[in-house]
Amino acid sequence: MAEEGLRPIIVKRIKKGGGGHHGGAWKIAYADFVTAMMAFFLLMWLLGSTTKGDLNGISEYFKTPLKVAMEGGSGSGDSSSILKGGGKDLTRSEGQVKASDDPAVKKTFNLTAAKAALEAEENQRLKALKEKIENKIDANPLLKKYKEQLLLDITNDGLRIQIVDEKNRPMFALAKADLQPYTKDILHEIGFVLNDVPNRIGLSGHTDSTPYMSETGYSNWELSADRANASRRELIAGGMNDAKVLRVVGLASAVNLDKADPFNPINRRISIVVMNKRAEESVLRDGRQIEVSAEDAAAAAAAAGAPPPAQAAPSGPPVRK
């Protein structure tokens, strides 16, 4: 019994082998086969969908890759390519630089000539407006009576319409900004006609050199500005668009029309300027300053005792209408 208790216990372990056709090596081979088949079908699809031009380009690249890369060549940019050298004609076997084989026509623009043409066109439009106002004055019995008090001329700033005083026929009440009834009628007729052109307008009021100063400090400067603003209101009352007004100034007696006689009633006037594009841009430009016509600027400088500024060639004396 004691010997049976000391008998060793033997445990048999069976070790299974991993070789033979039951191993996992076949999975790696199968994955390689599938990858190769996918690459093959992808290559076939690319070859089938590539145009002949692309094939020729690829062939040229592998023959002389540096030359094609630096200089391009037949087929280097196919018609269906979105890269440089491509085009839109899919029937072509070689690349296109443009959708058409016609030689490119370079367009050049002469800005100076274009600007001169626009200025000439605008000048013709202002001349047509001047003729229309003159015809309206001749056709209207009311305006025809005051024909001698209406001066129209073309200046460097545009069409200038001046309504001047006569000794026995003033436009305003004495030393006031109240317009006479006939002055209102004149401004109503002019205001309606000014809508025929897109140009903006500027108004300036003028007095003669007769000293005027009230106890409150009200002088010819305030009077001329008030008269210009009163004229603006009557132009709008006559039908002119309020947005057309760009500038309203009072110049007192600084710019006399009759320089030989500063007390002449003709110096008391309202000046309406239908501004050309150059004058309008001068007013609208940043850092602008109020400007008057070249003739008025020279006269103002002479009145102040300063040398006259440089100015363009004179446009001729005003035409009395």
Automatic annotation (TrEMBL):
<comment type="similarity">
    <text>Belongs to the MotB family.</text>
</comment>
<feature type="region of interest" description="Disordered">
    <location>
        <begin position="72"/>
        <end position="97"/>
    </location>
</feature>
<keyword id="KW-1003">Cell membrane</keyword>
<dbReference type="Pfam" id="PF00691">
    <property type="entry name" value="OmpA"/>
</dbReference>
<feature type="region of interest" description="Disordered">
    <location>
        <begin position="299"/>
        <end position="321"/>
    </location>
</feature>
<keyword id="KW-0966">Cell projection</keyword>
<dbReference type="InterPro" id="IPR006665">
    <property type="entry name" value="OmpA-like"/>
</dbReference>
<dbReference type="Pfam" id="PF13677">
    <property type="entry name" value="MotB_plug"/>
</dbReference>
<feature type="domain" description="OmpA-like">
    <location>
        <begin position="159"/>
        <end position="278"/>
    </location>
</feature>
<keyword id="KW-0969">Cilium</keyword>
<feature type="coiled-coil region">
    <location>
        <begin position="111"/>
        <end position="139"/>
    </location>
</feature>
<keyword id="KW-0175">Coiled coil</keyword>
<dbReference type="InterPro" id="IPR025713">
    <property type="entry name" value="MotB-like_N_dom"/>
</dbReference>
<dbReference type="GO" id="GO:0005886">
    <property type="term" value="C:plasma membrane"/>
</dbReference>
<keyword id="KW-1133">Transmembrane helix</keyword>
<protein>
    <submittedName>
        <fullName>Flagellar motor protein MotB</fullName>
    </submittedName>
</protein>
<feature type="compositionally biased region" description="Pro residues">
    <location>
        <begin position="306"/>
        <end position="321"/>
    </location>
</feature>
<keyword id="KW-0472">Membrane</keyword>
<dbReference type="InterPro" id="IPR036737">
    <property type="entry name" value="OmpA-like_sf"/>
</dbReference>
<dbReference type="InterPro" id="IPR050330">
    <property type="entry name" value="Bact_OuterMem_StrucFunc"/>
</dbReference>
<keyword id="KW-0282">Flagellum</keyword>
<keyword id="KW-0812">Transmembrane</keyword>
